[in-house]
Structure formats: C-alpha cells, structure tokens
C-alpha cells in the first residue's frame, strides 16, 4: 500500500502541442492517501482515463512525476508498480476455473499451496464466488467475470492500488446495482486504496470517499460526495453532479444586492467587493427551490413524475429552472412563484464560487 | 395513426421469444418498452418494423394489414444503442441519406437537413465526419437522420444507453421537444425505469417475452397489475416479503406488524406478498406512530442528496432510499420506518390486490 503523488503532471498525445486544447491533461497536482476510496469523475474526453493510465504506467506523462511513497516511479513500467487493474471488459483466463484464475497471481509469485488456498477461499467468499470456484471461467456472466478480475487484484497483498476503468460498462443494467454495492463493501472491508474512473455520478458518489471532478483536462474540484453536492465550487460541478443538476441562472449584482429577474435574491455568500466586468450567476439546486405564492413569478412549462419525486420545469424570462416536489405534493398551475433557500443559494463569478 | 399487434407470437425452433402479444400503440407521446436485457424488447421492435416476421399473428398499421411487408416498404426509422452512422459520409450527407433515396430535390434536402440539424443542435458539425464527433453528437446525427425522414413509425432501441450519464439526461430532456409535432408512432425501448417515468406517455412492461402490463406510464408505475411489473419498474429493486393478514393487522414477523387500513382492511385473511418501494422505507419516522423494522446495516451509500441503506431483517435483504445524508455505520442495527399507506399487496398468483 502506498501514498501516491502526482506532481506537475501535464500530458499531450501530440508531438508538438501548441494551443491549450492540444493538452489532454493540463497542469495538475494530486495526492492519493493510503486506503482511500477515490473516484475520478467527468464527461467523456475530460482526461480521467489518461490520468489513470499515467498512474498505472501505461502512459508516460509529457511532463511531471509520479511518486509512490515518495519514490519516483515515472520511468518504471506498469508491471513493476504493484498495481491491479479492472477494465471495462473482464480479463479472465476462460479455460481455467475460477479458482485457478484467482490463484494465478499467487502461483506466479511462488506462494506455498496452503497459503494460496486460504487467500483464494477468503476472497471468493467476499465476492460471493465460493459456489463457482470449480467452474470454468468461460461459463460465467459478465458480472461474474468482472468479480474474477477484481479478485485477482484482491488476493495479492503487495498491491499498492486497485484501479477501475468504467468497470460496470458491460454489466447488465439490472445487476450494476449489486456489483456497485459489492465494490463499496469490499473497500470498507479491505481498506485497499482504490481509484474508480467513471462518467456516472451515481457510481462515483456511492463508491468514493473522495471524488476528483475533471473537465477538459483539469481538476475542477476534489471533495467528498457531500461537499461536492452541497457546495460546488464551480458551476460545472454543480451542473454535473446531481440529477437533475444545479440551476445556474444569470444574475446582476448592484450595490451588493443580487438580483434575478429584477428581484432581490438572498445568497449564502453575498459579495463583499465590487464585481465589475465579471460574469455573475446564482447556483441553486432544484432540491432547494420551493413554491411560494409571494416569490419570483415563473411560468410552469412541464411537470414530470419521477416516482419518488416530481420534477417541475419553469421559465422566468429567458431563464429555465427546475424544482423538485415530493411525491404527493400539490401541483402548481400554469403560473407560480418560487423561492430559493438562502443557505443553498450561492453567487458564482466567472463560473467560480465567490469565496 | 396506430400500430397494432394482434396475437403476435415469435418462435425460433422450440423456443418462444415473444408470447402471444396484443398491443395498440397510438401516435401521441412516447410508447416505452420497459424490461431487463433479453426481455424481448428488440425482438418486439423488429416485429413492429417488419425486420422480422411473426410466427403467428398479424401486424396492422393505420388500419392496414402490414404483416409480411418488409421494412423497406414500411416507412420506418430506427435509432440504435450504438450510434450508427455512415463513417465515410459527412454529417450532412448522413442526415440527407434517406431523402436522397426518396429522390427529393437538392433544395428540399438542404432545407430539411438544416432544419433538423438546428433542432438536434448539431448544425455547426454538418461538414464533419462522424469519427470527428463526440458520442453525444454522433447519436444526435443518428437521431437527425431518423427524424428527417418523417416516418410513420420511429423505433428507438435504448438510444441513450451508450451516452455519458449527464448527456443521457440532457438528451432525455430534449427528446419530447424533438418529437412534439410529429405524426409518427414512437416506440422507445429501455431498461431504465427513470427513462419511462420522465418520457411519460404509455409504457409496456416486458418480461421474458411477455407483456405484463400496458397503460399510461404513471398508472403502470403507481398501480402495477402484478409483482413482476412492479419489479421491472423499480430501480433499486422493490422490497418484498410474505405477510399474513389477521383480522385488522398485517403481520410481517414477530416484531413487525401494522394496522390494515382502507382497502387493505377489506382483504380476506391469509398470506400475501407485500411490495415496498425503497423510498417508502426511511431512517426518519414519518409520524409518531410509524411502523418500524429493526435492520442491521450492511452497506450505506451516500450520493450527494440521497442515502441508500442496505439492511438485513431476519432473512430479508432490503433497501431503503431516503433524502438527505444518513451516514450509518455498517454493522449497526437501526430503526427503519415503513410508509405503510403506500405498501402494495400481491396475492399468491402475484396479482395486485391492494
């Protein structure tokens, strides 16, 4: 197990990068502490897989260093970094049994038979694979095979970090749920360092203790799922996390007062200095927008029934916003008033949280 | 316009892939086909399109028998899960292709392509090739091609499944607007109950080649005809358990029982299966007399605004989903409160009785 540090990492897939968009990863510094459960979350093309590959050694960064416990491993190849990886597609030895698959890395390291048996049984039990140990791996479903991929990393005690690259991609949607919970449970039981790359916020937020949100090659925010949800420091984070995402509404700031649609809005972070020339917006999640007859007038465009809540889409001038209603709550007519919960309404300047 | 399946059966050798199906789909709104993988959604869509012929039964469209009419003669558009575009044609040509086949004039083609491209928001990409586009843009191109044709029947087979989570949400928001003024019957297959709920319209729930229910989406969700339908339309899975009705009480176990009220009270005494949606079980009581169950916490998942708690109660493995952050330690036993008024009850055959 190790503490992993990324220092001044920058990466381009081009031989002679010129413009900012030529860089897949713009300058970043990150630290991963021992035993943590991390997620790298961001849309396609944000650089998360590139980052994962730099940590594993599959890609050598254009600039910067990769350190494991303070030792510079930037030049060291993947097989000497003591990592385990689970990819989108299960990697199993089809002709071997499940048992043999799990034992494989231990046999390679010359462990005694009794020890191998003990470790394989323990891991199989954690993964609910005990019944299948004697079966040929080829006969398992996708989620069974992914568990084997994962198990091969867990049986080894010399693994610094286990990395997952969109591991639920080929899993039957009805079973993703189970495997996701299983991964979380495994982290809680083994306390191995795990880094999970995904574009799916549900996967990231339910698995990780710390989420690294990426966008266009930069790290936009690092925090716990709660922090990212409650206090997004960038409008992108607010938009990307949460389903539906945060409302981002253009506003004016005049003499310290924040105005939306000509009405004064109370925010959690009122400005303390002039904001000349900066593009100002308020961010408030649909969960924290309520109906209030005396509030800001809006036109109701649509009400969707999402089962456990209802999503109301409203329009105010040129701006569109969403709010959530509980199951069974009274529905608005075609017009209504809305109110923003002050403690969850924040001012953003040039997309950054004003702090 | 209506699409009708009359006693349609599809068998391959000794296996029945689609059991006798009777459906009538109208052109208003989305007709969602909801079911797990391998439930038969794609086969059913292929039968609707004329890509496959039924082993028995008939397909009727707009009052005409179209059974046996091949898809090329049917005026159908399809959008697939894997964004399928012609790789060697520009986005413009991709969208224009069905119009070229129909031999429209260049001026007409140009006008229609531009209008659709604006609608799906890929107008700036018209000169590019699909390989130069992001996943979302490729799927929009495929959608544009399906829309430009103005087909009578538009079939979308899990079109959002390969898109990023956020993109899926955005496109799902846009789809109703794209199809708003169309005269087509639109069928949308998905495994995700949320797609069905948010796109609304009507829903067909499919399980192992059988239609378990068809109706307005909200109705199928709130009043499933049977347990199978309730299960298909639930993510996370619906919690179930055997209960006994004894006089005025529903008894789950020695420690858990509640008053039978309203329609439930009228049920004959006996054994039933209770179905409780995860969001009707919460670590927070919904009243002073709330029924609770003691659960040993196995996993807690916190995702921003929601807490999902997996717990054990005797031999039951249940899931609770609630608003807010409830960070409970694994291994502890806590009280979880059931909203008994929202419980559903199913009889021995799995049919909804209350």
Describe this entry's structure for a reader:
The complex is a heterodimer of chains A (355) and B (354). By secondary structure, chain A is of the alpha+beta class. Chain A has two domains: 4-239, P-loop containing nucleotide triphosphate hydrolases (Rossmann fold, 3-Layer(aba) Sandwich); 249-353, OB fold (Dihydrolipoamide Acetyltransferase, E2P) (Beta Barrel). Helix content of chain A is 24%, strand content 34%. Chain A has helices at 48-56, 98-108, 113-126, 142-154, 173-190, 201-207, 225-230, 235-240, and strands at residues 4-11, 25-32, 37-41, 63-68, 71-72, 83-86, 161-165, 194-198, 210-215, 218-223, 247-250, 252-254, 257-260, 263-265, 280-284, 289-305, 309-316, 319-326, 335-340, 345-349, 352-353. In chain A, the strands form five sheets. In chain A, strands 6-7-8-3-9-10 form a six-stranded mixed sheet, with helices on both faces. In chain A, strands 2-1-4-5 form a four-stranded antiparallel sheet, with helices on one face. In chain A, a hairpin with a 2-residue loop joins strand 9 and strand 10. In chain A, helix 2 packs across helix 3 and helix 2 (98-108) packs parallel to helix 4. Chain A is globular. The mean pLDDT of chain A is 90. By secondary structure, chain B is an alpha+beta fold. Chain B has two domains: 2-231, P-loop containing nucleotide triphosphate hydrolases (Rossmann fold); 239-346, Nucleic acid-binding proteins (OB fold (Dihydrolipoamide Acetyltransferase, E2P), Beta Barrel). Chain B has eight helices and 20 strands. In chain B, the strands form four sheets. Chain B has a six-stranded mixed sheet with strand order 6-7-8-3-9-10, with helices on both faces. In chain B, helix 2 (91-101) crosses helix 3 (106-119), helix 2 runs parallel beside helix 4 and helix 3 packs across helix 4 (135-148). In chain B, 43% of the residues are buried. The model of chain B has no long low-confidence stretch (mean pLDDT 91). The A-B interface holds A 43-45, 172-174, 177, 180-181, 184-185, 188, 199-202, 205-206, 225-226, 228-230, 239-245, 285, 287, 304-308, 311, 327 and B 36-37, 134-135, 161, 164-167, 169, 191-194, 197-198, 200, 217-218, 221, 235-237, 277, 279, 298-299, 301-305, 308, 310, 321, 323, 325, 330.
